[in-house]
Amino acid sequence: MSTPKPRIKLDKKEAKKGDIVEVKALVSHVMETGQRKSADGKVIPRKILNKFTCTVNGKEVFSADFEPAVSANPYIQFKFKAQESGPVVLTWIDDDGSKIVGEDSIKVL
Amino acid sequence: MSISITRRQTLFVGAAAIAAAAMGQSVGPAHAANNIDELAKKFTGGAAPVEGKVKLDLPEIAENGNTVPITVSVESPMTDADYVKEVILLADGNPNAGVATFHFSPASGLAEANTRIRLANTQNIVAIAKTSDGKYYTAKKQVKVTIGGCGG
Fold first, then answer.
1. Are A9 and A105 in contact (CB under 8 A)?
2. pLDDT digits over B79-135, tens only?
3. Which long-range contacts does B22-25 make (Cβ < 8 Å, 24+ apart)?
4. Which of A79, A84, A91 to mutate to test the interface with B (most CBs of B within 10 A)?
């Protein structure tokens, strides 16, 4: 399976120090719950993205733990306070240990 | 009359039982049959959360239970001295009550997050927030679900 590319959108590219920046992110993933059964009656094993982290210039600003109740193709929206310019890195961790990483950047004036 | 259950009634009872079993839980809204109390207690460490400060924004009627938008926000200055650490979202009618946990810090600026969740049927959503000074706040909202996101 090719690694899906997450879609990330910041509500501003440049911010004044202390401004609140909104991040919206969407990533393709089945988020298989482990509750469903296939046609032959076998339980389809759970496979979800269970952890999400966002760092700005290397510092963590927000993270989340997901349970199977989070929808397929998980969407997440959150905010951070602009402190310093740098990369905005979003990481999702799969049940199988693999990672999906997306990146944007913010410029603090 | 000696016949108490007709063929038609038998069929109906059978169909109702299958429908109930398919969702893995009893019919009818607002039942705390899953592990919601256990998870809430684990999150608060036994403390009783106070109502208020937390705002839950969900549609009153969700047509598709597979993807229900949810926004949770907590009133807080979000300074180093006083901020919201964690917010847990729980659902009392899903096979498993856990939905998501959000971790905030003063760098978050605002304790607010939005995602999309699955709801098996009409049920209550509970949010519990934990602040940096060890206090717990909560909010609850019922969502009516037309088509469940049970995956069945």
1. no
2. 999 999 999 999 999 999 999 999 999 999 999 999 999 999 999 999 999 999 999
3. B22/B152, B23/B120, B23/B121, B23/B148, B23/B150, B23/B152, B24/B95, B24/B150, B25/B93, B25/B95, B25/B120, B25/B121
4. A79
For A44-89, how does the pLDDT look when each residue is reduced to its tens digit (9 = 90+)? 999 999 999 999 999 999 999 999 999 999 999 999 999 999 999 9
Domain presence at residue B32 = yes
How many Å lie between the alpha carbon of A101 and the closest alpha carbon of chain B? 18
The domain total for chain B is: 1
Domain range for B94 is 28-145
With an 8 Å Cβ cutoff, is B46 touching chain A?
no
Measure CB to CB from residue A79 to each of B95, B101, B110 and give the nearest one.
B110
- Asked if B91's CB is within 8 angstroms of A80's CB, the reply is no
CATH code assigned at B120:
2.60.40.2470
A60, A68, A72 ranked by CB distance to B105: nearest: A60
Domain annotation covers residue B48: yes
Tell me, yes or no, if B147 comes closer than 8 A to chain A by beta carbon. no
For testing the chain A interface, which of B34, B103, B123 should be mutated: the one with the most A CBs within 10 Å? B103
Are B84 and B74 within 8 A, CB to CB?
Answer: yes
Distance (Å, rounded) from C-alpha A23 to C-alpha A20?
A: 10
**pLDDT at residue A5 in the model:** 87
3-state class of B12 per DSSP? helix
Give me the interface pTM, i.e. the ipTM.
0.93
Within-domain flag for B92: yes
* A106 and A21 Cβ atoms separated by less than 8 Å: yes
pTM beyond cutoff 0.80: yes
